[in-house]
Amino acid sequence: xxxxxxxxxxxxxxSLGIKVPKGSAFSYDTPTDCPKAHQMCGxxxxxxxxxxxxxxxxxxxMNYQRVIAVSPSMGSNFDLMKRLNIDPEDVFEDVDDIExxxxxxxxxxxxxxxxVNYKEQMKTYKKFRKLMDENRxxxxxxxxxxxxxxxxxxxDFIPPYHKYGGLKxxxxxxxxxxxGSYLMTKGARRLNQLSIYHRHLGQFPDGGALGASxxxxxxxxxxxxxxxxxxxxxxxxxxxxxxxxxxxxxDDIKDEFSGEVSKQTFQDIYNKAIIDPHDFLxxxxxxxxxxxxxxxxxxxxxxxx
Length: 305
What we know:
The protein is of the alpha/beta class. The chain contains 9 helices and 11 strands. The protein has a 9-stranded mixed sheet, sandwiched between helices. Helix 4 packs parallel to helix 6. The two termini are 29 Å apart. The relative contact order is 0.17.
């Protein structure tokens, strides 16, 4: 075999080199030691391990502007969810509603439309201000433009308003306690589509998209019915893994990451991460260049292989 590879030669074709498009799959800036965005994060742990707490802490640290929660236990986790400033309209408690993925898509598209409309209004407003600065008589300015920017309560002309200051909002969706629900069974196809296209949701007419990060809190990595589908697992860019007594589950996870490190290395890292009762192993498959490792004990301790 060694001799065979030494006999292989290559001839390059200059005209067919791969041209990498500008931009990045992760188009948002996040704090230095946080993961990139947008991402797909699987949070796996038994009941009471701290799944919701870890997910909320990560979402909070990454400074998402809007968070959507899909969870039947929203009421019992009220204090925790309050930290994320989730609006009541962004809470979906009926996890048997298989239309939730389409409703999430509609929310993101509405954010896209608001931003597109704001930018168009700003173009008109800048032209309007230029006319006003030139001391043009108001009768020479179209009535619809005057009415568009005049505020009768303030008695003045005001610029268009956008709740994020004309910037693209970074959006997260937290799925918690949905394992075994209709959303994960009968609605699996819709949820798979949302997961596959999560970075491309809310596409702009001139290119790019708002996108969304998805966080799935589940009690097991795989299960016979209503668990993380293969499509979701394949899209994961990060994972939060709590202690598991299920050797088969741990073997399945090792298999999923065998393309990154050997099974034995993953086991060694897992053992190093899980020490105290609520510890977890955090795996970031798309770490930033300056980050020393893709593995961490909790969020605040890198594990160097």
